[in-house]
Records
---
Amino acid sequence: MASPAPPWPVRVLLLLLPPLVALAVWMDGQRYDPGLLDFQKGGNPGSELAKMFPDTLGLLKKMGTIREYTEANLYEYINGHADFFIGAGFRRLTVVEYGPPGARQPTLVADVYDMGKPMQAFGVFTDQKGSQAEAVNVGDMAFVSDRTLGFIKDIYYVRLAAFAADTPLLEAARLLAGKIQSRAGATSGFTFAFPDLGTTGETRFIKENYRGMAFLNNVVERIFTGEKGEVRTAFLVNGTPATTQDLEKSMLAFLQGEGIKYQTSATQGQAKIYRVTDPYEGDWFFAVGQDRLLGVFGPCQPEHLQRMGEAAQPPDVTRKSPSNVQDLP
């Protein structure tokens, strides 16, 4: 038996519903949001970064549209390496192209990664540096390799890639670095409080699980070579007074758990210096200051430990506090 037909008002409503829905969708699409089309008017942190790019870098002029990427679409630009940047603290990427006046294609691409923190910018910088890179004076730290130049400035990791051999890469990088510094209000001098333990060698960033110690993360490691060729490996973790105290507790708990002997060797200012008798690594030392933990693997003389204690403490604390570092073995 056939179903009864619906009343005529219902039939009319069903006939009108599709065109009404289509009309509503069309009207919604006509609303213009300039923030979606012009990154420089968006009012978000990424837009502020986009404004830092000058119209010219020396003889090169800005070309095309400024592109921005977030965690959601970073893979569209660096597919295969996006997870690394996101895991290192990535917040936003801004990409700008430059080329000679009248050129139809860019000769230089500038990628500026907002990494959130200077230490996180340093982390990706060291990963991207490459073994053949040559240090140059740009920003807080920089390297150049073939037609690629990378530098860090405050919380930013910047990578410039040239498509032509005669592209003034270094000049462009210095101009851009100066612009980023002035607009961001960042202080210059991205330094680490390592003491003088010999000739400075490579500096590395280890994000997690330093030397198998799960509580030691975001570690900066620097290699030093002494006058007799002895190697000292120093490591540094910056933090707050609270996190530094937690690190000290975790370190002592780790040593106790592993059955490794240690003793408090000396104090320099308010920094405590521990001597660790490690059956695997040999004797090594770490100093705990107000807001940093500084350690050294390798042979250390009393003067080295004194420098460790001084480096582990803010300068004003070190000057005011007494030292008994002369009692070190």
---
Amino acid sequence: MKKLLWWLIAGMKGGLNRAKIIKMLNERPYNAHQLSDELNLDYKTIRHHIKVLEENNIVKSGDEKYGKMYFLSPAIEENYDIFTEIWEQIGKK
């Protein structure tokens, strides 16, 4: 999980935005529009990062199509301390 998080957050373009999404979803579930508003990012940008996070089992979604809510996966919840460690190193830049 540690290598995956480093790759997704620090090793790829857009990693800081993915890290911000993870931080938001750790507080509570959000849909893509809410994340777009809260993070002041384009909706399509949010959808792209959510797709990347879902493909890597970091984010899970509900079943509904409209207003689909996103949650952190159990895998990232169990390893959130690793994410915090990475965030402290890159999030302050």
---
Amino acid sequence: MTTTESGPPAPAEIAKGFADGREDSLADAYRRWSKLVFTLCLRALGDRGDAEDVTQQVFVSAWRGRGSFDPGTGELGAWLAGVARHRIADRLAERYRAQRDQAAAATLAEQGVAPGHDELLVDRVVIADELDRIEEPRRTILRLAFYEDQTYPQIADRLDLPLGTVKSHVRRGLLHLRDRLKEVTGDDAS
């Protein structure tokens, strides 16, 4: 099947253009497969906002990683579904870690803490809460850096982001967290 003057390009044409780095093919791929990717994300995540975010991440990741796609060995739609599965798994793991951190903080709060540890507990709870409020991808970057001890290059590779972008998100995120801790603790010394 080939392109007709009145119809959209055929999937094989979109795949070839996508692999060749043609931006119009990225737009065609989005028009053709974004509903499928969104449906996969929505069914797995159960949240429309998360599904929209992950759908966008799928196409950004796919575009940046298009060098690993070979139109001769598979269909672009199936490849995009594979990328979506990875991004969904990342989002679910992120949710799990957030729930685990909140549960741990709640448990510590319920158990009480030895004198001298109260402020540390407050800091942990505030940080966990503030991390949940930070928008993506900054939240994921901070969690990968400080909860999973990943290096900036590892994070950049995993999220398909430029290294400078990762560093900027970490710096801005840390400044934000520092400011929030100051507000909560009333500590103006820096």
